[in-house]
């Protein structure tokens, strides 16, 4: 049971060294989970940047290719890998560059 007088985030004064180390271990595991999640998010951002999104042709505009990380076109459908895009990843002429 937590000590009401102990500052938040710190073990109570009477805690044993074992209890303190267990609390530290629990916090470090939580921290590791946060870092692992951030790494997964960054890896996904990198993969998205290497893809291309196809904006459908409309009566008023031609079909366009957008980089996967482009914010001008939000749809997540019609995504192709860099190897299949015309120009094979050349950003020349892309409006988001």
Q: Could you give a short description of this structure?
A:
With 97 residues, the chain is α+β, with helices and mostly antiparallel strands. It is built from 1 helix and 3 strands.
What does this structure look like?
The protein has 97 residues and is an alpha+beta fold. It has one helix and three strands; from the N terminus they run H-E-E-E. The chain has a three-stranded antiparallel β-sheet with strand order 2-1-3. The longest helix has 33 residues. The radius of gyration is 25 Å and the shape is rod-shaped. The mean pLDDT is 77.
Outline the low-pLDDT stretches. Answer: none
Fraction of residues in H or I helices: 25-40%
Oligomer: single chain
Figure out the total of helices. Answer: 1
Tell how many strands the DSSP assignment holds: 3
Structural class, from secondary structure content? alpha+beta
The overall pLDDT, averaged over residues, is 77
Describe the sheet with the most strands.
3 strands, antiparallel
Shape: rod-shaped
| Spatial strand sequence of the major β-sheet | 2-1-3
Strand content: 5-15%
Secondary-structure element sequence? HEEE
Rg estimate, integer Å: 25 Å
First and last CA, distance: 57 Å
Topology:
Layout lengths: L16 H33 L1 E5 L8 E4 L11 E3 L16
Antiparallel strand pairs: 1-2, 1-3
What descriptors fit this protein?
alpha+beta; 3-stranded antiparallel sheet; 1 helix; 12% strand; 97 residues; single chain
């Amino acid at each position: 049971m937590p000590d009401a007088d102990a500052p938040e985030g710190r073990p109570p004064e009477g805690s044993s060294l074992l209890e303190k180390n267990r609390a530290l271990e629990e916090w470090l595991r939580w921290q590791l989970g946060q870092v692992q999640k951030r790494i997964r998010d960054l890896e996904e951002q990198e993969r998205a940047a290497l893809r291309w999104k196809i904006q459908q042709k409309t009566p008023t505009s031609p079909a366009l290719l957008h980089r996967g990380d482009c914010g001008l076109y939000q749809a997540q459908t019609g995504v192709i890998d860099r190897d299949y895009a015309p120009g094979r990843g050349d950003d020349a002429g892309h409006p988001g560059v």
